[in-house]
Design a protein that fits this description.
two-stranded antiparallel sheet, alpha+beta
């Protein structure tokens, strides 16, 4: 699938953290039908970017991706932060 995009990090208003902006363009296989099918399985690129940004935020704020038992049982894109041993 052809795609293009940018990721920008900007200081949030009043110095309250960082804003991350993702702009992405892509042509889904099979057009709108393919996009709708991908959404059903959380494989649509826009959904994946939202999930990845949420995980990125969790890692930056807590050092790990927070995962519930329900999420662990669901097949999909679960990523865990690397662990370090002292």
């Amino acid at each position: 699938m052809q795609n293009a995009g940018t990721v920008r990090f900007m200081e949030a208003p009043d110095g309250l953290g960082t804003e991350v902006r993702v702009d992405m363009e892509y042509e889904p296989p099979f057009g709108k039908l393919g996009s709708k099918l991908a959404m059903m399985f959380r494989e649509e690129p826009g959904q994946q970017v939202q999930d990845d940004l949420r995980h990125f935020k969790e890692v930056m704020e807590t050092g790990e991706v927070l995962v519930s038992d329900a999420t662990k049982q669901r097949a999909g894109r679960i990523r865990h932060a690397p662990t370090t041993n002292p």
